[in-house]
């Protein structure tokens, strides 16, 4: 019999519905697997007692015929989502010991649908990072290793704990957040699926803010269908979030077909970078052939302002972070450091110096600089204007195509320490940032392996609110790729 933790989320749903196993058995299998995989450091906090109670409630609901769609499904919650009564730190020392008295809208929706919370997943501090090395609670280690190597690899970031947990079979699925690629890039690095929906599809209420005009929650799971199931539960209007879209939520899983007849797939020429890894270029071409076989037509498109996406992102995101993170001052909650004989200003400075890590401090400094008098118009205003041009590029592309296909990341997972230079690290987001700036739905699907035997993902970008189209193209790639490799 297949180990319970090896089942996909949809297979778990079917097994629970058929009473082939209980929610308690499924949860215990995951808790045991978590204990054996603690060396990965995927979880900051484990919640076994909460999980067991939720599993027992799911079994009772299944027996009574009142079960919700996710009844008994064991999930990990990224530590950016506030969870009532359970520590939430955003991977930062400045929030160590913070116990929220409320539940984020997204995690609340999942729990209301019967999901079981296994714990809070590790992440880059305040979601700032592409390798999960900036967490105050230690780095997350990918369950993958390159062929013939024992070096520890990064799981990607910032949702590295979510990615590692799903790939290592210590969560059936997980919540992630994506500001510039933080769902899609780690999904690519560990060989799982992950989707960032249209900005506003999932409520940001109760999610610790990094860059408010970019942050968007989404699911990470092992298959496209699993992501579709979770996305249906996570989406929906929330009056507590002023950017939430008041629109009906489709049953994304029920609408999956993988049939792309009549669809036009765009290939943005600007994504063919000089010196692109030959394996990734070949996989991209293979992905286009797979989509053509599923009935799609391939067309060339241009997104001329793509070259400015990274600099625009690394002006706007730090600026918003500088503003959002000003609330962490040691006065109301979290860490407080009071120097002997110091005044209030000394306490602010000492608390923030001790509470924030180097990458967070770097981005606060950049953000404060670009928002300062004399530089606001030169940097921030200009970046917002170019962001509008980037969004317009996509609008013009939709006149020629329905979806775009690109690589997810410029490389496979790398070893810890290989990208010590911040600029080298920021380049990991080169393919994912444009869709974030435009607020578009985008998904990474595992499609092949690098020369070193490490996962590589392909990215599908869709029109606003066309998550269904993105998922269908993802399913077509998933079926054609037949990706079965595992750590």
Molecular structure report:
The structure is a single chain. By secondary structure, the protein is of the alpha/beta class. It has a domain of 304 residues: Amidase signature (AS) domain (Amidase signature (AS) enzymes), CATH 3.90.1300.10. The chain is 37% helix and 13% strand. The protein contains 15 helices and 11 strands. It has an 11-stranded mixed β-sheet with strand order 1-3-2-4-6-5-10-11-9-7-8, with helices on both faces. Helix 4 links the parallel strand 2 and strand 3. Helix 5 runs parallel beside helix 6. It is globular, with a radius of gyration of 21 Å. The model has no long low-confidence stretch (mean pLDDT 96).
Structural class: alpha/beta
Number of helices in the DSSP assignment: 15
* Biggest sheet character: 11 strands, mixed
> What letter string, H or E per element, gives the SSE order?
HHEHEHEHEHEEHEHEHHHHEHHEEH
Give the gist of this structure.
With 487 residues, the protein is of the alpha/beta class. Helix content is 37%, strand content 13%. It has a domain at 4-259 and 434-481: Amidase signature (AS) domain (Amidase signature (AS) enzymes), CATH 3.90.1300.10.
List keywords for this structure.
eleven-stranded mixed sheet; 487 residues; alpha/beta
Ordered list of secondary-structure elements with their pairings:
Layout: H1 9-17, H2 23-36, E1 43-46, H3 48-64, E2 74-78, H4 105-112, E3 116-121, H5 160-167, E4 173-178, H6 184-190, E5 193-196, E6 216-221, H7 224-234, E7 264-268, H8 278-293, E8 297-301, H9 309-324, H10 344-355, H11 358-371, H12 376-397, E9 403-407, H13 422-426, H14 433-438, E10 442-449, E11 455-462, H15 467-481
Parallel strand pairs: 2-3, 2-4, 7-8, 7-9
Antiparallel strand pairs: 1-3, 4-6, 5-6, 5-10, 9-11, 10-11
Helix pairs in contact: 2-3, 5-6, 9-11, 9-12
